[in-house]
Amino acid sequence: MKDHDATRRTFLKNTGRLAATSALAAGAAHGGVHAGERNTIRLALVGCGGRGSGAVRDALSTTGGPVKLHAMADVFEHRLKGSLNNLSAAYGDKVEVAPERQFIGFDAYKKAIDCLSPGDVVLLTTHAAFRPLHFEYAVSKGINVFAEKSFATDVPAARRWLKTAELSEKKNLKVGVGFMWRHSAARQEVIKRIHDGAIGDVHTLRIYRVHGPVHCPPRPKDKNELEFQIQHPNSFSWLSSGFFIDWHCHNIDVACWAKGAWPVSAQGFGGRCYPEAGNQFDHYSVEYTFADGAKLLAFSRHMKNCWNTYTDYASGSKGSAVIMTSLSRPHPKIYKSQEMVPGELTWQYSQPEVNPYRAEWQVLLDSIRHDKPHNEARRAGEAGIVALMGRMATHTGQFITWDQALKSEFQFVKDIDHMDYGAEAPIHEGPGGIYPAPQPGITKEV
Description:
The chain is of the alpha/beta class and 446 residues long. It folds into 2 domains: 2-181 and 357-375, Rossmann fold (3-Layer(aba) Sandwich), CATH 3.40.50; 187-354 and 385-433, Dihydrodipicolinate Reductase, domain 2 (2-Layer Sandwich). Helices cover 35% and strands 18% of the residues. It has 14 helices and 15 strands. The protein has helices at 2-15, 22-25, 50-60, 77-91, 108-113, 131-140, 155-170, 185-195, 225-231, 237-240, 243-259, 356-370, 377-396, 402-407, and strands spanning 41-46, 67-74, 102-104, 121-124, 144-147, 175-177, 202-211, 265-271, 283-289, 295-302, 309-316, 320-324, 333-335, 345-348, 400-401. A hairpin with a 5-residue loop joins strand 9 and strand 10.
């Protein structure tokens, strides 16, 4: 993940100085805050790791009115304190988290959300296992939400998310999700052209996220096993949904956006070559099929010393498209054939890319200030079902349909709502401290 984190930091640095899009500029002139006469939108951060702290930075960098960090919650005190110190140093009085609004523990999310009022926003940035119950509580309290991906670790949890998404719509809550590429001007433009017929009927999509490994070190013998797993989330499917979903769900969402549909089935192959992957495979290849027979091919590999790429492609009856060249510079292109060479190029995006991490926050906060419809929760949940289909198919070795997936009763954790460090870890290490990998044909996830 070091390379990916460095790329994100470079992207933020390079795009921070760029001019805003029309969506960003719209925040410069605003009326009253939807919450009432109070003009400041207050934030509560639930999950104070790098992903959550980065989301706070993006929120505090928006325009259109004052935004302040008001409360924080985490299961680890050192992580909360480290995040608070770093954010305070960078943003000064935009960070006002008094000691009585700093909460530690598995129930800390409730206490942080209870510090907010209608018109404020809670950032749900813990691991995916806890996302649906945190979302459910925030919506029950009438609080707007920013939820990082991924959104559920199994289908019952995804159904819980979708049920809450429906309630959030009925309550006119504003919900943003961590699919920032939907707010990328470059990707918006190339997908608009695809929808307008620039490459004809889309029949094949290919998405790649192949780079260095996730690392799961041996567990110290005196370390609580549940705490150890929570500290290494991307190594465990029950906790983060696994890196095929948690890392690759962006590409899956964009590919389905380009197609304008969700797949109806999936089958996949995978395996584990190295123990660093925790209890998962370290490579996945999934074939999704859409209702019209079109295919989405998803490739995910995380190993050292292998070919790396982070790219998305679409092929149609009249040509092909590069949707993304890299994370930091998507640089999309359209070609008049399947040969992606200069002589076949018909269009390329040449404008500076607006920072989508900031753009998604600007849209969310503007929607609150102007009381405009904005709720990405349902789409996020449905994209999550697609990603779950791919992992389920690969881990079990079965052909999985959308309908089968939606009806699945498999759960990693039966009562996640009441988990604490006294609970038994959902999975246990085997001989040599190595966690068992899935066994296609034997493993059950449906």
